[in-house]
Amino acid sequence: MFKMEMTQVVQRLTILLISVISSIPVSISSAQELNSEDRDGQSPALTKSAASQYLLKDTDRQLTKFQQEQKPAHPSHNVPNEEDLISLLSKGSSTRFARRSARSQLPLDKLTPANRINAEYVLKDISMFRILPKIQFDVNHSAYAFFIAHPDVVVSIWRDMKISDFQMWQTGPTSYEIDAGDGTIGTLEVIHQTPTETMVLCSGVYKSPLLAKPIAAKALLYLETEYQPGNGKTKTSVSHQASMYVSFPSQTVEVAAKILAPVSNVILDRNFKEISIFMHMMSLAMERQPGWVERMANRLEGVLPVRRPQLLKVAARVYIDGQQRRKPTKANPLQSPQPINVLSRSNAKAPRKLPDNLRVQPVNRAQSPM
Asked: Which residue intervals make up region (Disordered) (predicted)?
């Protein structure tokens, strides 16, 4: 029973960490550039008028419903597998060499003194370490940046889609509170952020009637992101990788965590892959079914009111980018210059030949009638 409880703790803590990498200010170029005063200010998004223009109207929804009714009852669809959605660039690891290498890359020198103390508190007593797989997948950069910047929207979408019972509330510019609904509660604080890296501190507690004392844990998560631009008809993509350091104050819990490491490592890698697939599929939904995203945005709970229109604007931008990419390229109407036919420009008569002894005299502008 204790092993099962520990496995649940690790799984909840993992999802709690990976799903809430927040507030990365990414500046991505889009197919349609806007002035800075027309943008939202918190996410790369379109104006309200553009969102209203490109999201589905009532007539579009009726047409979509009619088309669905005309489809056969059991259409044959090829269900994509994991390899079709994401690419595994490198596997996860928990070796000592991977741990030393990952720890040396942590930007501790860029932290504030208080945040560095909190990060080093976890690093000096690591009970569990894991560097997660490096994954690459197609995703619109605007959609990826929005979900990274607003993890509370991700959690709310999960609840709406009946994927998870997690609840998250934004309590500050870079802080969140989380309740998993099963006795797991926690807080998250973003202590460092750049367009390509983010560091998050997490504190969690798991309470259960089957346990004599609550299980407490602190964790540090470091995420690195690389953005690959698309060219022409090629979609934009992202590759990211995270390393996680967990510290259990209880030595008993730490021993149990090390025993369960083979199981928890599989859970960690699996969760990271599923979150990557989620971002890929949401980007695809924004591009192909913005009406569905619009309806879902109106049902979001537990988020700030401004998040709903922000999600709609990002969906509109992703839709426009997709339309621009799928536009057929027209053939170049320009032709290489052809030599001029002198006879065709003079009514088939050759121009009069000038005398060989012709001399041009310089003109004095003072004497010239001009």
From this structure: 323-370
What are the residue ranges of helices labelled H in the chain?
2-18, 48-54, 58-70, 82-85, 96-104, 113-123, 141-149, 151-160, 251-259, 261-288, 290-297, 307-326
Task: Give the closest residue to 140 by CA, choosing from 308, 296, 299, 290.
Answer: 290
- Using pLDDT thresholds of 50, 70 and 90, give the confidence band for residue 293: very high
Specify the pairing of strand 86-90 against strand 134-138.
Answer: antiparallel
Could you tell me the CATH number of the domain that includes residue 275?
3.30.530.20
For 235, 335, 339, 353, the CA distances from 342, given in Å and listed in that order, are: 51, 20, 9, 13
Question: How far is the C-alpha of 351 from the C-alpha of 242, rounded, in Å?
Answer: 78
Buried-exposed string 109-148: b where 16+ CB fall within 10 A, e elsewhere: eebeeebeebbeebeeebbbbbbbbbbbbbbbbbbbbbbb
pLDDT tens profile 240-265: 999 999 999 888 888 888 888 889 89
> Does residue 223 belong to any structural domain of this protein?
yes
Strand partners, 199: 192, 222
334 domain-assigned = no
Domain count, the chain: 1
- Structural domain contains residue 311: no
The verdict on residue 190 lying in a domain is: yes
Paired sense of beta strands 184-193 and 175-179, if any: antiparallel
Pair 239, 89: CB distance under 8 Å: yes
Q: 215-228 and 237-247 as β-strands: parallel, antiparallel, unpaired?
A: antiparallel
β-strand partners of 221: 200, 244
296's tokens:
């879902």
**Percentage of residues in the chain having pLDDT higher than 70:** 67
φ, ψ dihedrals at 155, nearest 5°: -65, -40
Distance CA 99, CA 220 (A): 13
Domain with 151 in it: 2-25+88-287
Q: Which segment of 140-144, 260-264, 269-273 scores lowest on mean pLDDT?
A: 260-264
Question: For residues 244 and 11, what is the distance between their CA atoms, to the nearest angstrom?
Answer: 13
